[in-house]
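This is your field. Please look over both lines of this record.
***
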Amino acid sequence: MKEIIGFSLEEARKELEGFLADPQTVPAMEKAVGIMAESLSNGGKIMSCGNGGSLCDATHFAEELTGRFRGSRKSLPAMSINDPAYFTCVGNDFSFDAIFSRWVEAFGKEGDVLLAISTSGTSKNILMAIEAARAAGMKVIALTARKGRPMIEKADVAICAPDAPHSDRIQEIHIKVIHIIIEALEKELGF
Protein backbone atom coordinates (compact mmCIF):
# COMPACT_ATOMS: atom_id res chain seq x y z
CA MET A 1 0.00 0.00 0.00
CA LYS A 2 2.78 2.43 0.95
CA GLU A 3 4.44 1.84 -2.46
CA ILE A 4 1.23 2.62 -4.35
CA ILE A 5 0.72 5.86 -2.42
CA GLY A 6 4.34 6.92 -2.78
CA PHE A 7 4.47 6.09 -6.49
CA SER A 8 1.21 7.92 -7.17
CA LEU A 9 2.32 11.06 -5.36
CA GLU A 10 5.70 11.00 -7.11
CA GLU A 11 4.04 10.58 -10.50
CA ALA A 12 1.71 13.52 -9.78
CA ARG A 13 4.68 15.66 -8.71
CA LYS A 14 6.50 14.89 -11.98
CA GLU A 15 3.44 15.82 -14.04
CA LEU A 16 3.09 19.13 -12.20
CA GLU A 17 6.79 19.87 -12.68
CA GLY A 18 6.42 19.13 -16.40
CA PHE A 19 3.46 21.49 -16.58
CA LEU A 20 5.39 24.24 -14.80
CA ALA A 21 8.43 23.73 -17.05
CA ASP A 22 6.41 24.31 -20.23
CA PRO A 23 7.06 27.94 -21.27
CA GLN A 24 3.54 28.18 -22.71
CA THR A 25 1.75 27.34 -19.44
CA VAL A 26 1.72 30.72 -17.70
CA PRO A 27 1.07 32.83 -20.83
CA ALA A 28 -1.82 30.54 -21.83
CA MET A 29 -3.37 30.81 -18.37
CA GLU A 30 -2.94 34.60 -18.38
CA LYS A 31 -4.60 34.81 -21.79
CA ALA A 32 -7.48 32.60 -20.63
CA VAL A 33 -8.08 34.80 -17.59
CA GLY A 34 -7.99 37.89 -19.80
CA ILE A 35 -10.55 36.45 -22.22
CA MET A 36 -12.87 35.44 -19.37
CA ALA A 37 -12.51 38.74 -17.54
CA GLU A 38 -13.27 40.70 -20.71
CA SER A 39 -16.36 38.60 -21.37
CA LEU A 40 -17.69 38.95 -17.82
CA SER A 41 -16.93 42.69 -17.75
CA ASN A 42 -18.93 43.16 -20.94
CA GLY A 43 -22.03 41.24 -19.86
CA GLY A 44 -21.02 37.85 -21.24
CA LYS A 45 -21.11 34.45 -19.58
CA ILE A 46 -18.92 31.40 -19.39
CA MET A 47 -20.17 27.95 -20.37
CA SER A 48 -18.18 24.84 -19.57
CA CYS A 49 -18.37 21.24 -20.75
CA GLY A 50 -16.55 17.93 -20.54
CA ASN A 51 -17.14 14.18 -20.35
CA GLY A 52 -16.95 12.06 -17.20
CA GLY A 53 -14.43 13.50 -14.75
CA SER A 54 -14.00 16.49 -17.04
CA LEU A 55 -17.73 17.22 -16.70
CA CYS A 56 -17.25 17.17 -12.94
CA ASP A 57 -14.41 19.68 -13.38
CA ALA A 58 -16.56 21.82 -15.70
CA THR A 59 -19.34 21.80 -13.12
CA HIS A 60 -16.93 22.59 -10.29
CA PHE A 61 -15.65 25.59 -12.27
CA ALA A 62 -19.16 26.96 -12.87
CA GLU A 63 -20.32 26.44 -9.29
CA GLU A 64 -17.25 28.23 -7.92
CA LEU A 65 -18.01 31.23 -10.14
CA THR A 66 -21.71 31.37 -9.31
CA GLY A 67 -21.12 30.51 -5.66
CA ARG A 68 -18.11 31.32 -3.52
CA PHE A 69 -14.47 30.43 -4.04
CA ARG A 70 -12.34 31.90 -1.25
CA GLY A 71 -14.44 34.84 -0.23
CA SER A 72 -17.84 36.39 -0.70
CA ARG A 73 -18.47 38.36 -3.88
CA LYS A 74 -21.26 38.80 -6.38
CA SER A 75 -22.24 35.74 -8.37
CA LEU A 76 -20.64 35.51 -11.81
CA PRO A 77 -22.59 34.21 -14.83
CA ALA A 78 -21.27 30.71 -15.51
CA MET A 79 -23.01 27.46 -16.41
CA SER A 80 -21.87 23.92 -16.85
CA ILE A 81 -23.68 21.91 -19.50
CA ASN A 82 -24.69 19.03 -17.25
CA ASP A 83 -28.48 18.52 -17.23
CA PRO A 84 -29.16 14.74 -17.40
CA ALA A 85 -32.69 15.14 -18.78
CA TYR A 86 -31.35 17.38 -21.52
CA PHE A 87 -28.54 14.90 -22.26
CA THR A 88 -30.98 12.03 -22.72
CA CYS A 89 -33.29 14.16 -24.85
CA VAL A 90 -30.58 15.33 -27.24
CA GLY A 91 -28.77 11.99 -27.15
CA ASN A 92 -31.99 10.21 -28.13
CA ASP A 93 -33.25 12.74 -30.68
CA PHE A 94 -29.90 13.55 -32.29
CA SER A 95 -26.82 11.80 -30.88
CA PHE A 96 -24.47 11.87 -27.91
CA ASP A 97 -22.10 13.84 -30.13
CA ALA A 98 -24.57 16.77 -30.14
CA ILE A 99 -25.21 17.07 -26.38
CA PHE A 100 -22.95 20.09 -25.88
CA SER A 101 -23.22 21.77 -29.28
CA ARG A 102 -27.02 22.01 -29.15
CA TRP A 103 -26.79 23.74 -25.74
CA VAL A 104 -24.16 26.17 -27.02
CA GLU A 105 -26.33 26.83 -30.08
CA ALA A 106 -29.31 27.59 -27.82
CA PHE A 107 -27.63 29.73 -25.17
CA GLY A 108 -24.30 30.97 -26.57
CA LYS A 109 -23.87 34.43 -27.98
CA GLU A 110 -21.10 36.65 -29.21
CA GLY A 111 -18.98 37.78 -26.29
CA ASP A 112 -19.51 34.57 -24.29
CA VAL A 113 -16.76 32.06 -23.55
CA LEU A 114 -16.73 28.27 -23.78
CA LEU A 115 -14.36 26.40 -21.48
CA ALA A 116 -14.03 23.02 -23.22
CA ILE A 117 -12.36 20.27 -21.17
CA SER A 118 -11.08 16.97 -22.54
CA THR A 119 -8.10 14.90 -21.42
CA SER A 120 -7.76 13.40 -24.91
CA GLY A 121 -8.59 16.50 -26.93
CA THR A 122 -10.42 14.31 -29.43
CA SER A 123 -13.92 13.92 -27.95
CA LYS A 124 -16.34 14.48 -30.82
CA ASN A 125 -19.01 16.10 -28.64
CA ILE A 126 -16.47 18.59 -27.28
CA LEU A 127 -15.17 19.38 -30.77
CA MET A 128 -18.75 19.94 -31.97
CA ALA A 129 -19.35 22.28 -29.00
CA ILE A 130 -16.27 24.26 -30.02
CA GLU A 131 -17.60 24.53 -33.58
CA ALA A 132 -20.98 25.73 -32.27
CA ALA A 133 -19.24 28.29 -30.06
CA ARG A 134 -17.27 29.57 -33.03
CA ALA A 135 -20.48 29.86 -35.08
CA ALA A 136 -22.02 31.93 -32.26
CA GLY A 137 -19.02 34.28 -32.11
CA MET A 138 -17.82 32.96 -28.75
CA LYS A 139 -14.23 32.66 -27.55
CA VAL A 140 -12.98 29.15 -26.76
CA ILE A 141 -10.58 28.09 -24.06
CA ALA A 142 -9.42 24.48 -24.30
CA LEU A 143 -8.24 22.59 -21.24
CA THR A 144 -6.61 19.41 -22.54
CA ALA A 145 -3.25 17.63 -22.79
CA ARG A 146 -0.43 18.26 -25.24
CA LYS A 147 -1.67 15.37 -27.38
CA GLY A 148 -5.06 17.12 -27.82
CA ARG A 149 -4.28 18.57 -31.25
CA PRO A 150 -7.85 18.85 -32.55
CA MET A 151 -8.93 20.97 -29.55
CA ILE A 152 -5.69 22.94 -29.44
CA GLU A 153 -6.05 23.95 -33.09
CA LYS A 154 -9.67 25.08 -32.70
CA ALA A 155 -9.28 27.14 -29.50
CA ASP A 156 -8.38 30.78 -28.94
CA VAL A 157 -6.13 29.55 -26.18
CA ALA A 158 -5.22 26.03 -25.08
CA ILE A 159 -3.92 25.14 -21.65
CA CYS A 160 -2.21 21.78 -22.02
CA ALA A 161 -1.27 19.38 -19.27
CA PRO A 162 1.65 17.08 -20.07
CA ASP A 163 0.67 13.85 -21.76
CA ALA A 164 0.35 11.14 -19.15
CA PRO A 165 -0.21 7.39 -19.25
CA HIS A 166 -3.54 7.78 -17.41
CA SER A 167 -6.20 10.50 -17.58
CA ASP A 168 -6.29 10.99 -13.80
CA ARG A 169 -2.89 12.71 -13.91
CA ILE A 170 -4.16 15.08 -16.61
CA GLN A 171 -7.31 15.76 -14.58
CA GLU A 172 -5.20 16.61 -11.53
CA ILE A 173 -3.47 19.32 -13.54
CA HIS A 174 -6.83 20.50 -14.87
CA ILE A 175 -8.35 21.01 -11.42
CA LYS A 176 -5.24 22.95 -10.36
CA VAL A 177 -5.63 25.15 -13.46
CA ILE A 178 -9.33 25.70 -12.72
CA HIS A 179 -8.62 26.86 -9.17
CA ILE A 180 -5.83 29.19 -10.31
CA ILE A 181 -8.00 30.68 -13.06
CA ILE A 182 -10.82 31.35 -10.60
CA GLU A 183 -8.44 33.01 -8.14
CA ALA A 184 -6.83 35.13 -10.89
CA LEU A 185 -10.21 35.98 -12.42
CA GLU A 186 -11.54 37.25 -9.10
CA LYS A 187 -8.46 39.46 -8.72
CA GLU A 188 -8.73 40.69 -12.32
CA LEU A 189 -12.38 41.63 -11.75
CA GLY A 190 -11.56 43.49 -8.54
CA PHE A 191 -12.98 41.12 -5.92
Observations:
- The first helix runs from residue 2 to 21.
